Amino acid sequence: MPAPTQFLSYIDSHADAFIQRLADAVAIPSISGDASHRKDVFAMADWLNSQLTQLGVTTQLVDLGRHTMDGEDLPLPPAILGRIGNDKEKKTVLIYGHFDVQPANKSDGWDTEPFKLMINKETGQLIGRGSSDDKGPILGWLNVLQYHHENKLPLPVNIVFCFEGMEESGSEGLDELVVRESKKGGFFDGVDCVCISDNYWLNTRTPALTYGLRGLSYYKVTVSGPGRDLHSGVFGRTVHEPMTDLINILSTLVSSQGDILIKGVDEMVPRADEEEKAIYAGLNYNISDIEEAAGASIALSDDKVSVLMGRMREPSLSIHGIEGAFSAAGAKTVIPAKVSGKFSIRLVPPQTPDAVDPLVIEHLNNAFAKLGSKNILSVENLHGGKPWMADHRHWNFEAAKKATKAVYGQDPDLTREGGSIPVTLTFAESLGVNVLLLPMGRGDDGAHSTNEKLDRSNFIEGSKLLGTYLYELAAISK
Ligand SMILES: NCC(=O)N[C@@H](Cc1c[nH]cn1)C(=O)O
Ligand SMILES: [Zn+2]
Ligand SMILES: [Zn+2]
Question: Binding-site residues, please?
Fold first, then answer.
């Protein structure tokens, strides 16, 4: 069943209003990883809840309790559960998204204010934190709802929504909610399939459907010693320095070629056979795609298959930052008393945080022991999630393929994503249904980075895609 042509033209004729709604959403700095912005994540939940109810969705805000972040006890933002339609004759799709965002400051190198949506009329880019990850896609669903609500038309399927405000900080509290509500009589009972729009096309040209995500294990390794910060002129070459120890340890984790140097981690993953390599070779992708998205010619290899495998089917270790280090302008001659290095490993099947964590901890302890330092080492696991893979031959994917062909006139790439959305696997396992990732944005959107953007055409055609997918879902046989 194709989407009504009135729906497609409604999306086109309301594009400016939809972009204004995106600007309103971007203006709320709902940064889940920064305690000082927790009130904004709550404000974002209220804003989204009010949009949903105005569009006919029955909602409830679910209190997820409290947690400790950076030593501070904080209330977790609520999850928003919503339902529209309860027709036993129709399929029921669960739609997940997150309304929190990564941190962003103009001083990080943004060309414009990150929380003021900048509309570049020449390029068609909508620039602002959360435009692509994940406020644009969430608003895509609202655009679909608005057409049906204003025209008093029933949706082709029943929809159950699950929106959270902690995805960028480990989805705290959500797994328990999903498991509980997936049981008989729970809010998600009766769901036939799941759709998540929270990732990106592989390139800037070809729409994609995604059937795999990497998992994640995130670590904080702290070295402390001196009772306070010290003067390097007085204490240099006199005491064990925490920063020196930390840099030494961090340098043992990963090679400049991306190989993980922690014994047993890379080795857990079976090598790709020729048949699997042919899948990557067939994807519409060039080394220039990754280099343009990265903003420099820095790909680890000139071989497209090797680069794609590095992103999709191999683990990676990235060092993210050092807390407590001197990082301001100028030349302060300090020996920091306590420093914490933060790094994470993206995991692929059959790796899990439970299997990888002991290897990492043993490696860190051994590396520290070799230094012969009198400082103290401690290791924390900040959060983790397992990798996920789905059956892309399922009718849920077939419906999305048809919708993509109808809206974009081309077949989608079938991709595995390098990022992580840990709740994906929880949905798949606790509901026992197929989960589809249906991205809206392009591979060069710069999610988590400076100047994050969503192209106007991806927002508008992407809204059509989400609506068309619902119609194809209604038509397809299970
Ligand atoms: N769009 C999904 C996404 O960006 N997920 C994050 C999840 C995460 C985990 N810890 C911090 N963020 C990702 O980095 O993949
Ligand atoms: Zn996201
Ligand atoms: Zn993200």
Answer: 98, 133, 168, 198, 231, 333, 346, 420, 448
200 CB-contact burial (10 Å; exposed 0-12 / middle 13-18 / buried 19+) = buried
170 within 8 A of 218, measured Cβ to Cβ? yes
Pocket of ligand 1, beta carbon within 6 A: 133-134, 167-168, 170, 198-199, 216, 218, 419-421
Question: What are the residue ranges spanned by the domains of the chain?
Answer: 5-214+387-475, 215-269+314-385
Q: What's the pLDDT tens digit per position in 405-458?
A: 999 999 999 999 999 998 999 999 999 999 999 999 999 999 999 999 999 999
Q: Which CATH architecture has domain 215-269+314-385?
A: 2-Layer Sandwich (3.30)
Q: Is the peptide bond before 350 cis (omega within 30 degrees of 0)?
A: yes
Ligand nearest, relative to CA of residue 452:
3
Average pLDDT, the chain: 97
Class of domain 5-214+387-475: alpha beta
Virtual torsion, Cα 202, 216, 341, 338, nearest 10 deg? 150
Task: Give the tens place of pLDDT for each residue, 267-326.
Answer: 999 999 999 999 999 999 999 999 999 999 999 999 999 999 999 999 999 999 999 999
Distance CA 79, CA 99 (A): 10
State both tokens at 233.
């002129």
Read off the tokens for 310. 């590095």
Pairing of strands 92-98, 158-164: parallel
Residue 256 backbone dihedrals phi, psi, to 5 degrees: -65, -15
Residue 395's nearest CA partner among 312, 463, 467, 469 is: 469
Cα pseudo-dihedral 258, 381, 33, 51, rounded to 10: 100
**How far is Cα 158 from Cα 276, in angstroms, rounded to an integer?**
37
Q: Supply φ then ψ for residue 146, to 5 degrees.
A: -60, -40
pLDDT exceeds cutoff 80 at 1:
no
- Residues 292-300: contacts with CB under 8 Å, at least 24 apart: 292/204, 292/444, 293/443, 293/444, 293/446, 300/257, 300/258
